[in-house]
């Protein structure tokens, strides 16, 4: 292969990669095809002109790549944007001995996806001594191999369960796409919410398939897990991070936080194909009786019918655990 062909191949490959990156980043808006086609056009022009003016072409195309890379490196996650209503506030917590005071706990009343009454609890008091259990909720929609994970803490003193959901923090004019999630398009948020909000939203309003799995935990593990979530919330409020579809999402972040309690969670493919996480946890003895087949555990975990029974929303958490 001649030097010219090597140069043309390198330009085409770099142009294609940058076109894909541009399309992914801008896919949350209508500008994605324009940016992708612009990179295709630049690469095509450079591949053609490198035969005529190799030095000038290499310098020009190289400058375009460097400028794009510098712009990309300059993008920072920000705490203040025009967020959608449900992502408006990042929960934080203050720990004083066995008592944790959580600020900005979400407790929305959802009537439809667009119609809701917004309510934020300014100071929710949590007694760590009353922490009784931890549940893992999974919700799927259409594709059962991909699930959203929510961890919920249950208390014995009558305090309403506290659900924690790690999500993309979207701006008002943004639309979610998995492509954009790879490319610094969305910030990360840890939503602390009541189950009548974040779980009921999925069972009643979005019509998703929701399952509840009781995690096998010790009192020490439950306490460490709750406190680690509080630390993660506080850190995120001070220094925002980007969501990443593959590396920093609702599954990988939950697994990372669980590991801080001392629980061994070796990397495995279900951490990428999140719908298989409950089966993976069952194999590790973290979900359901180890002697029971996972299929039986999974059937019992489906809360759809119980969740949609008529009854007061205030009884929702008791009903889905009946």
Percentage of residues in DSSP E strands: 15-25%
Can you count the beta strands? 12
Helix content: 25-40%
Q: How far apart are the first and last residues' alpha carbons, in Å?
A: 70 Å
Give start-end ranges of low-pLDDT stretches.
none
User: Major β-sheet, in short?
Assistant: 5 strands, antiparallel
Compute the number of helices.
11
**Class of secondary structure makeup:** alpha+beta
Radius of gyration: 23 Å
* Average pLDDT reading: 93
Number of domains: 2
- For the largest sheet, list the strands in their spatial order: 11-10-9-8-12
The outline comes out as elongated
Element-level helix/strand string = HHHEEEEEEEEEEEHHEHHHHHH
Please explain how this structure is put together.
With 322 residues, this protein is of the alpha+beta class. The protein has 2 domains: 3-74; 85-319, no CATH class. 39% of the residues lie in helices and 20% in strands. The chain is built from 11 helices and 12 strands. It has helices spanning 3-26, 32-49, 54-74, 195-198, 200-205, 219-238, 252-259, 277-283, 294-301, 304-307, 316-319, and strands at residues 92-96, 99-103, 105-106, 109-110, 116-117, 120-121, 124-127, 131-140, 147-155, 162-169, 187-194, 209-214. The strands form 4 sheets. It has a 5-stranded antiparallel sheet with strand order 11-10-9-8-12. Strand 1 (92-96) and strand 2 (99-103) form a beta hairpin. Helix 2 (32-49) packs antiparallel against helix 3 (54-74). The mean pLDDT is 93.
């Amino acid at each position: 292969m001649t030097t010219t062909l090597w140069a043309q191949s390198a330009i085409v490959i770099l142009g294609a990669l940058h076109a894909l990156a541009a399309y992914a980043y801008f896919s949350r808006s209508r500008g994605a095809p324009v940016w992708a086609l612009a990179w295709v056009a630049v690469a095509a022009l450079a591949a053609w002109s490198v035969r005529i003016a190799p030095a000038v072409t290499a310098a020009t195309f190289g400058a375009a790549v460097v400028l794009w890379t510098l712009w990309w490196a300059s993008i920072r996650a920000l705490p203040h944007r025009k967020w959608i209503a449900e992502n408006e506030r990042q929960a934080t917590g203050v720990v004083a001995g066995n008592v944790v005071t959580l600020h900005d706990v979400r407790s929305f009343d959802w009537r439809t996806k667009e119609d809701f009454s917004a309510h934020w609890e300014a100071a929710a008091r949590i007694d760590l001594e009353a922490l009784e259990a931890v549940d893992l909720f999974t919700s799927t929609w259409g594709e059962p191999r991909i699930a959203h994970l929510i961890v919920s803490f249950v208390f014995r003193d009558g305090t309403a369960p506290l659900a924690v959901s790690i999500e993309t923090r979207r701006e008002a004019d943004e639309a979610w796409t998995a492509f954009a999630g790879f490319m610094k398009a969305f910030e990360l948020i840890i939503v602390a919410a009541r189950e009548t909000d974040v779980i009921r939203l999925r069972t009643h309003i979005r019509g998703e398939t929701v399952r509840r799995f009781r995690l096998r935990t010790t009192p020490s593990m439950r306490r460490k897990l709750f406190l680690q979530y509080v630390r993660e919330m506080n850190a995120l409020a001070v220094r925002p991070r980007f969501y990443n579809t593959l590396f920093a999402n609702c599954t990988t972040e939950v697994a990372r936080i669980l590991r801080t309690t001392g629980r061994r969670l070796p990397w495995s493919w279900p951490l990428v194909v999140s719908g298989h996480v409950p089966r993976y946890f069952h194999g590790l003895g973290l979900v359901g009786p180890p002697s029971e087949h996972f299929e039986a555990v999974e059937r019992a975990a489906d809360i759809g019918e119980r969740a949609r029974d008529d009854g007061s929303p205030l009884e929702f958490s008791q009903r889905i655990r009946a």
